[in-house]
Design brief:
The chain has about 280 residues and is an alpha/beta fold. The protein has a single domain, classed as Rossmann fold (3-Layer(aba) Sandwich), CATH 3.40.50. About 40% of the residues lie in helices and about 20% in strands. Strands 1-2-4-3-5-6-7-8 form an 8-stranded mixed sheet, with helices on both faces. Helix 5 crosses helix 6 and helix 6 runs antiparallel to helix 10. It is globular and about 45 Å long.
């Protein structure tokens, strides 16, 4: 494992966030937000590129994932308070942030509502809110899944259990195989790369420690309003999207709101290749 585990951050009320870091220990500090269903260990995928870029990259398990206890009633915008607490713990008063998928959704919350602490944001294939105009622009299979979360959360809970990887026994491996068959071909290739697969699998296994970790965060993103605007941002925002990612129409809409759009080959997790990760680290 390439991450360095740090002491938990203790939040008001006694909640804890499990924290780790990679990269240059004396470099400029930036924060990384893992995908929904993953964990802080996903930060390990950026270990070499962060070190080469002179970045000390810190990531933590969001409440309900990995080693961070769940927070009932949590809202997406609560990430702002958590991020401020981590920054205070580290003695940081300005930071840039990056994240992928559901982590990218959290990065957008920080870009919209995290000033003055957050000075810039990089979102890789960010997940969109389940709003009618956005659902109409997305491919049918992902818009139906999001609409199920918004309108029928109990049914979504049953369906979404296949998305949480626990890595235990033949049933888990079968479910993982089923999930992989729905991936973009380049995603499958990327996830089997020797420089990606071990850290990605470890992050997913850690992210699945708590029951319903994936489901609870997906419902938080798709079953409630986000509580902030996405038509303009007070800080620079860069959005990376795979040319075959199902969320690409959302990324293009963010460009119209002022974000800088970067398109790369592949699908939802194809950003875990050195070329894209180097660009992300350079922006931090």
């Amino acid at each position: 494992m390439t991450v360095r585990e740090l002491d938990d951050v203790v939040l008001p009320g006694g909640r804890r966030l499990a924290l780790c870091e990679v990269g240059d220990p004396s470099g400029r500090i930036a924060f990384y937000f893992h995908g929904t269903g993953s964990s802080r260990l996903e930060t390990g995928l950026y270990a070499s590129t962060a070190a080469a870029a002179g970045v000390r990259l810190l990531g933590w398990d969001r409440p309900g994932a990995g080693g961070s206890p769940a927070q009932p009633g949590r809202k997406l915008v609560d990430v702002v308070g958590d991020t401020r607490a981590v920054a205070e713990h580290l003695g940081v008063n300005a930071v840039r942030v990056a994240g992928i998928s559901g982590g990218g959704s959290h990065v957008l919350a920080l870009a919209a509502a995290g000033a003055p602490l957050v000075r810039g944001a990089v979102a890789v294939n960010p997940g969109p809110p389940a709003e009618d105009d956005l659902l109409a622009a997305l491919p049918g299979r992902i818009s139906r899944f999001m609409r199920l979360a918004r309108d029928h959360p109990m049914a979504f809970t049953v369906v979404s259990q296949v998305m949480q990887y626990r890595g235990q026994g033949k049933v888990a491996e079968l479910l993982e195989s089923m999930r992989m068959r729905g991936q973009h071909p380049m995603d499958v290739e990327v996830l089997h790369r020797p420089d990606v697969e071990p850290d990605f699998r470890a992050a997913a296994l850690e992210g699945g420690r708590q029951p319903r970790a994936y489901t609870n965060e997906a419902l938080m993103i798709w079953n409630q309003p986000w509580g902030f605007r996405l038509d303009e941002f007070p800080v620079p925002v860069d959005v990376f999207t795979g040319d075959g990612d199902l969320f690409r129409p959302f990324a293009e809409r963010l460009e119209r709101a002022g974000a800088t759009l970067h398109v790369f080959p592949g699908g939802h997790v194809s950003g875990f290749v050195p070329e894209v990760m180097q660009q992300v680290m350079a922006l931090l």
